[in-house]
Write a structure and sequence with these properties.
Length: about 325
């Protein structure tokens, strides 16, 4: 179904961080931006759809409005809102928001004064755009910071703090399709494996909380068409109804820890990558008669002897996807055959 295409070289290799790849497709220009993290640096690469003509840039995340000092970055992701696109970085010291090409920092939020859980460092991790104007970012304390983003300018404000988790946030996912009024907009995951489902608005409302069914961390979570897709440290993928939290399917997808999930909103294709060196492509659908969620396995690729830490589709249909691996100085691309 897929074949290996031309890869995109990196200036520095990817670190073994959850969801350590972000992709911003630019179909009008027939290219895409890629971002992955190495220490205190974000590797930014723009490349044409055929992998040619790559342009490299390394963004050193500066801490504070004076742009002094650097910190270990935990994640980099593009947040696509109706009126603008921001590149959001999280680190051990704070949250930085840049224009989409990383050229200008438009907002900085420090984590100073935030209480750490016993035996844990302070950091931010888990990034998603939600609704018309919100960017949501998780923290090591278990809280989720909701930022209100104007259509332009730097007047970004912290509008709300969501506090229903008891463990560090691992990932934040937003609805990728149209949702019914009052339906789920956002799902947040933590180290204990717990999930919280939210409805966005001037104030975010908790819809349901899904308690862990095992002791495995939920490392990556997505929300599509009212379905929560969660990947866990035991290699399982679990599918829940967002409205009720009901478990609908459980798949033993990988032999080891899942590091990344992604969903193609137009097709329902699901991508999973793990430290077992395998990346899998699945197809999600609803049975028209029973409304049950069905999962079909479509494709497997192996990147030998590589801990895969990032995986993203490069277009809304899921016809191309890319993966990163620990200490791998290349973004590997696969294209539909």
């Amino acid at each position: 179904m897929y074949r290996r295409g031309r890869g995109v070289l990196l200036k520095e290799s990817a670190l073994a961080l959850y969801n350590n790849l972000s992709v911003l497709p630019l179909p009008a220009k027939q290219l895409a931006y890629f971002a992955c993290v190495h220490g205190g640096t974000v590797n930014l690469v723009s490349a044409a759809d055929d992998g040619l003509g790559a342009s490299h840039r390394q963004l050193q995340a500066k801490e504070g409005s004076l742009g002094v000092g650097a910190s270990a970055i935990t994640q980099a992701a593009w947040c696509v809102l109706p009126s603008r696109v921001l590149l959001v970085l999280t680190s051990r010291k704070g949250i930085q928001m840049y224009e989409s090409d990383g050229s200008v920092m438009v907002y900085w939020h420090a984590l100073e004064g935030m209480e750490a859980l016993p035996g844990q460092a302070v950091f931010a991790r888990g990034i998603a755009a939600s609704g018309q104007r919100f960017v949501c970012v998780g923290t090591s304390s278990g809280s989720v910071l909701v930022f209100d983003v104007p259509s332009k300018g730097t007047n970004i404000t912290l509008s709300e703090v969501l506090e229903k988790h008891c463990s560090s946030i691992t990932d934040v996912g937003a609805e990728l399709c149209e949702r019914p009024e009052g339906g789920a907009d956002l799902v947040t995951a933590d180290d204990s494996g717990a999930l919280c489902v939210w409805c966005a608005g001037d104030k975010f409302k908790l819809i349901t909380r899904i308690t862990p069914v095992s002791e495995s961390t939920c490392s990556s979570v997505k929300l599509w068409n009212g379905v929560i897709v969660a990947g866990y440290g035991n290699g399982q993928i679990r599918l829940y109804e967002a409205a009720s939290g009901t478990l609908r399917a459980e798949v033993n997808a990988h032999a080891r820890w899942i590091y990344a999930l992604d969903l193609a909103p137009h097709s329902g294709k699901l991508l999973s990558a793990a430290e077992d060196s395998f990346v899998q492509v699945w197809k999600l659908s609803r049975n028209s008669d029973t409304q049950d969620i069905e999962v079909e396995h479509c494709h497997t690729e192996c990147v030998a002897d590589t801990l895969l830490c990032g995986a993203r589709f490069c277009d809304p249909e899921g016809s191309t996807f890319a993966v990163t691996g620990f200490e791998l100085s290349e973004i590997i691309r696969f294209v539909q055959a």
